[in-house]
Design goal:
The protein is of the alpha+beta class. It has two domains: about 5-45; about 50-170, Immunoglobulin-like. The chain contains three helices and eleven strands. Strands 1, 2, 3, 4, 5, 6, 7, 8, 9, 10 and 11 form an eleven-stranded mixed sheet that branches. The structure holds copper (II) ion (CU).
Length: about 190
């Protein structure tokens, strides 16, 4: 109200001025920054939606030449009032795909086992992330490099099947888990 009044007074007393008030300039700068942030965020992250399930940033690691397996990660959020389950996935780079859970056994050895699905609680989320649950792409037919994307699908018990894209990110970056992961996966090749 007071800004409108001041602007009106200024406009009336300086009808030809093209200078903007400090508030206006700060406002415009803020808007530009917000826009820039939104654009860069859209480039780095991507998401999909299947019914009540929001699929946040599916990604996979770049694989070395000759690799037979790769892992996929994603965060799943359930906005609905009933639990859902991720029950299957596919990736165009892989001959077949399983859902795995990684754990350290009582001898301190990193192991993986297939799980039937991943529960996404009502109003909650499930994270498939390095060191834990992951989508296992097996019989890799095609390696992808950092910065590329590949198509795939996620299948939910309630929300059904949806097409997604996995963003390929740097090999071994971030979690410090890369070495253990590839070692753990060596038995998957054949
Ligand atoms: Cu695995």
């Amino acid at each position: 109200m007071s800004m409108t009044f001041r602007s009106a007074v200024r406009a009336a007393s300086h009808p030809f001025t093209r200078l903007r008030s400090l508030e206006e300039r700060v406002g415009i700068a803020f808007l530009a920054l917000a826009l820039l942030f939104a654009m860069s965020h859209a480039l780095l992250a991507h998401d999909f939606r299947a019914g009540d399930i929001q699929i946040d940033h599916p990604w996979s690691r770049a694989t070395p030449e000759g690799a037979r397996v790769a892992a996929g990660y994603v965060v799943l959020r359930n906005a609905g009032s009933e639990a859902d389950r991720l029950i299957a996935a596919t990736g165009e780079i892989a001959g077949r795909t399983e859902i795995h859970e990684m754990a350290v056994d009582d001898k301190g050895v990193m192991t993986m086992r297939p799980v039937g699905g991943v529960e996404i609680p009502a109003g909650g989320e499930a994270a498939l992330a390095p060191g834990g649950l992951h989508i296992m792409f097996l019989d890799l037919q095609d390696a992808r490099k950092e910065g590329e994307r590949f198509k795939g699908t996620l299948v939910f018990e309630r929300a059904g099947e949806i097409d997604v894209e996995f963003a390929v990110e740097a090999a071994g970056g971030g979690s410090g888990h890369g070495g253990g992961h590839s070692t753990g996966h060596s038995g998957h090749g054949g």
